[in-house]
Structures are given as C-alpha cells and as structure tokens.
Write a structure and sequence with these properties.
single chain, about 160 residues, Rossmann fold, 7 strands, about 15% strand, globular, MDP_1_eu_arc, HAD_sf
Length: about 160
C-alpha cells in the first residue's frame, strides 16, 4: 500500500472544534490538572481522538504539518504548545493566505513532492486549490478521528498507484 510521506492538518474545525480567532479568547494558560483554558477561564477542548491520532502517526514515521490560514497566528502556536502537540509537527505553516503558498513552503523545506502529501481540512475551497497542485485533501466534517485517518490513507493509496 502506497503511503504519504507527510500528513498535514488544518486546525480550526479539524483538530479542534472552534475558530481560534472567534470562539476562544487568547492568551491561553495550562492549569495544574493539565487542562488548557482561555483568558476567560473557559476550558479549551479538542476533538477527542486527535491527541492519540497525532501520537500514532508520528510513531509510525510520518512527517506531520500544521497548516492554517488563521490570522491568530500567535494564539495557534501557543495552543499547539500548551496542548503538547509541538513534538508531533515537523512543519508549521500558520498565517493568512492560500493553502497553495503553505504547501509550497512545506515542499521547499521538506524536499517532498506534492504527490507525497495528504491533507485533512474542513474547507472545500482549499480542496479546489490543492487539487491543482496535486496534494490529496480529505474533507473533514466533524473533526479528525481514527476512522477518517484510515479513510485518508486508503484514498491516498488508491489514488497514487
């Protein structure tokens, strides 16, 4: 089975169930119990299977990337760090703009071809863009989970024969 060399994830409504620039109020802090809260002390939640998915993919040897067009760049980096996800991501492309620009930078930094990349995102407009350059994007409806990852890996294998 052909596998991607890099798996990338959008953040908002893909790894966590909110827009970081709208639904939470940075800066974030980590409580003694390990939970993360925003500036209003509202607990920040992520999709339940995301931490395990990231850990497993990293252990299986995939390179991982966080790719987001949010304007809340600093807050996104802070939240990734407080959640302990920094150790999983080889690449961070978090800034406003086209996902094509994000992936061109990953391509330049990694030396990988677009055809070796798999991306999970909830916005169809990004699929239209990435289809043009050959990055396979899997639509996310209700957050990343193990079943969706397995579907993405199957779709990648069948499309890259």
């Amino acid at each position: 089975m052909r596998k991607p060399k890099l798996i990338a994830f959008d953040l908002d409504y893909t790894l966590w169930p909110f827009w970081i620039d709208t639904h939470v109020d940075p800066p974030f802090t980590k409580n003694k119990d390990g939970s993360v809260v925003d500036s209003r002390k509202k607990k920040v939640k992520v999709y339940p299977e995301v931490p395990e998915v990231l850990k497993q993919l990293k252990e299986e040897g995939y390179q991982l990337a966080a790719v987001s067009r949010t304007g809340e760049t600093q807050a996104a980096y802070q939240l990734i760090g407080l959640l302990g996800w920094d150790k999983y991501f080889n690449y961070h492309e978090i800034y406003p703009g086209s996902k094509i620009t994000h992936f061109k930078r990953i391509q330049k930094d990694s030396g990988l071809d677009f055809s070796e990349m798999l991306f999970f995102d909830d916005e169809y407009r990004n699929k239209i863009d990435l289809d043009k350059i050959g990055v396979l994007m899997i639509m996310v409806d209700d957050g990343v989970n193990k079943e969706l990852i397995n579907k993405g890996l199957r779709d990648f294998a069948s499309s890259r024969q």
